[in-house]
Amino acid sequence: WFHVGVERFPFSITGLPAKFSPVAPGNESSIRESTDVIIEFSDKLASVCGGSSVLQATRFLSLGGSGDRNSRVKIEKLPEPRHAYKLVYRSRRVVGTSTRPDNTERLALTDEPLPFEFRPI
């Protein structure tokens, strides 16, 4: 199996639906800021991602996670822009971008966050 890297596209897309599951059992009806969650994408991606569509991070973000420590993330509010959030991993590093030699960008653990927002689906 191989892991599919997560890239940032140079054109506008509306995003992919994702499921946020709390790691701590009990309150699955809401997700609170700064609590551990696991992010999982559509089951359609599972066959391409080694059987798992769970987001994971070592240095770069990829799909194929197992729900272990590398799959746990916290959602934290950014001061600006309004309604913006960041993803923070256990290392206190945030999800940002890393530029490849061909100038494409890949999502990676960095010191500078890539802001995102939630949209209803």
Question: Which features characterize this protein?
Answer:
single chain, 121 residues, mainly beta, Trefoil (Acidic Fibroblast Growth Factor, subunit A), three-stranded antiparallel β-sheet, globular, Kunitz_inhibitor_STI-like_sf, Prot_inh_Kunz-lg
How many domain units? 1
The oligomeric state of the chains shown is single chain
Report the biggest beta sheet as strand number plus sense, adding barrel if it closes. 4 strands, antiparallel
* Class inferred from helices and paired strands: mainly beta
Strand proportion: 25-35%
GO molecular function: endopeptidase inhibitor activity
InterPro entries: Kunitz_inhibitor_STI-like_sf, Prot_inh_Kunz-lg
Pfam families: Kunitz_legume
Summarize the structure.
The chain is mainly β.
Q: Overview of this structure, please?
A:
The chain is mostly beta strands. It has one domain: Trefoil (Acidic Fibroblast Growth Factor, subunit A), CATH 2.80.10.50. The protein is 0% helix and 35% strand. The protein is built from no helices and nine strands. The chain has strands spanning 7-8, 18-22, 36-41, 55-57, 61-63, 72-77, 85-89, 94-99, 105-110. It has a four-stranded antiparallel β-sheet, with no helix packed on it. The protein has a three-stranded antiparallel β-sheet with strand order 1-9-8, with no helix packed on it. The protein has a two-stranded antiparallel ribbon with strand order 4-5. β6 (72-77) and β7 (85-89) form a beta hairpin.
Task: Indicate the topology.
Elements: E1 7-8, E2 18-22, E3 36-41, E4 55-57, E5 61-63, E6 72-77, E7 85-89, E8 94-99, E9 105-110
Antiparallel strand pairs: 1-9, 2-3, 3-6, 4-5, 6-7, 8-9
